[in-house]
Amino acid sequence: MPLSLWYSKQQYIADHLTCLSVVQIDAYFEEDLMRSLDIYRQSSSENNTDIKKDFDTVQHLFRCCGVHGEADWKGDTPISCCTEDPCNTLNPPNWPEGCLVKLRDWFASNYVSTGAGVVTLFIIQ
Q1: Which of 15-24, 39-48, 91-100 has the highest mean pLDDT?
Q2: Between vectors from CA 17 to CA 104 and to CA 112, what angle results, nearest 5°?
Q3: What is the DSSP secondary-structure string of 12-64?
Q4: Number of domains in the chain
Q5: Could you say which DSSP state residue 109 is in?
Q6: One-character DSSP codes across 68-81
């Protein structure tokens, strides 16, 4: 078997494994976001404050609402989804796009710096 054909097969396999890994990571990421949203929705105001703060921060900074959209909140949309500041609490306009897409896009555009930061932390440890 010529070396170039062997390399092509190896590259093909590596590309497909990478693609499968990305799909799996994306699915886990979506599951974790949905789990966090469910915990947020089912908690009283004094419970799980870290999850609530984190989710509210993501929604505010990334201008998104829910995981897939406002419907994820099932009628109990938090004020962090509101597009206006201060927010009109009577029928407020909310961000139309879900946070999964926004976060995925952010990680895709920042993967080099994010990866470099992770590698640096591992080296320091």
Answers
A1: 91-100
A2: 40
A3: HHHHHHHHHHHHHHHHHHHHHHHHHHHHHHHS-TTSSHHHHHHHHHHHHHHT-
A4: 1
A5: H
A6: SSGGGGTT---GGG
Q: Residue 93 belongs to a domain with what CATH number?
A: 1.10.1450.10
> Mean pLDDT in the chain?
78
Work out the average pLDDT over 67-77: 94
Is 103 strand, coil or helix? helix
Q: Region 16-35: what's the mean pLDDT?
A: 69
Per-residue pLDDT, averaged over 5-14, amounts to 51
Give the separation between CA 68 and CA 66, rounded to whole angstroms.
6
Count the Cβ atoms, other than its own, within 10 Å of residue 1: 6
Nearest-angstrom CA–CA distance, 65 and 3: 51
Residue span of the structural domain in which 31 resides: 3-124
